[in-house]
Write a structure and sequence with these properties.
Strand content: 15-25%
Helix content: 40-55%
Largest sheet: 5 strands, mixed
Number of helices: 6
Shape: globular
Order of helices and strands: HHEEEHEHEHEEH
CATH topology of the largest domain: Glutaredoxin
Radius of gyration: 20 Å
Number of domains: 2
Length: 181
């Protein structure tokens, strides 16, 4: 009986330790860092192209709330969050809020994906450079999806590495539209 009890205590202790290590690893993996100096300005002066080749007027984003979502067609959480992003875009598009999805993927993969899964918000081709922009905006691991909220003054207010849902994103935008007094 004593041996059985000792085994259970060891198993329980191992489970607690494993849970703690898993939580610590998760926090480390999904951490974001402060953006590099000038990262937003660099994005505003970059030439972002749509999948059909048009140039997005990134300079026109100045003075607006901007939601940038880095994604790829091969990333399941990216694809899962797109309907939520689309609903938020539709809700806020008339309120000085700009959305852009930057595809960190090949142009052909992005075009093929969007032909099957259209979204209303603008999509830009990021390619490998898109991963560098995400890192400069506070995503040291380069993981996807990665969402950034930039206020009207060009300051990064929120970042999230991992899937975002409509409720969380809307609360970000609401707090940017109606800053706390």
């Amino acid at each position: 009986m004593q041996k059985n009890r000792s085994s259970w205590i060891l198993i329980l202790a191992a489970a607690v330790i494993a849970t703690g290590l898993g939580a610590a690893l998760s926090l480390y993996t999904f951490r974001t860092t402060p953006a590099a100096d000038g990262a937003v300005e660099a994005l505003w002066t970059s030439e972002l192209r749509s999948p059909s080749g048009e140039i997005h007027a990134t300079d026109a984003w100045r003075g607006k709330i901007v939601v940038i979502n880095f994604w790829a067609s091969w990333c399941p959480p990216c694809v899962e969050e797109m309907p939520d992003l689309n609903r938020s875009y539709e809700k806020y598009r008339s309120k000085n809020v700009v959305f852009v999805g930057i595809g960190v993927d090949s142009p052909s993969n992005i075009r093929e994906f969007l032909s099957k899964t259209p979204v209303s918000y603008p999509i830009a081709l990021g390619g490998l450079e898109g991963g560098n922009w995400a890192k400069s905006l506070g995503n040291p691991s380069g993981g996807l999806p990665f969402t950034v909220l930039i206020d009207e003054k060009g300051s990064i207010k929120k970042t999230k590495l991992g899937k975002i849902d409509e409720v969380e994103l809307n609360s970000w935008i609401d707090s940017a539209i109606l800053p706390a007094k």
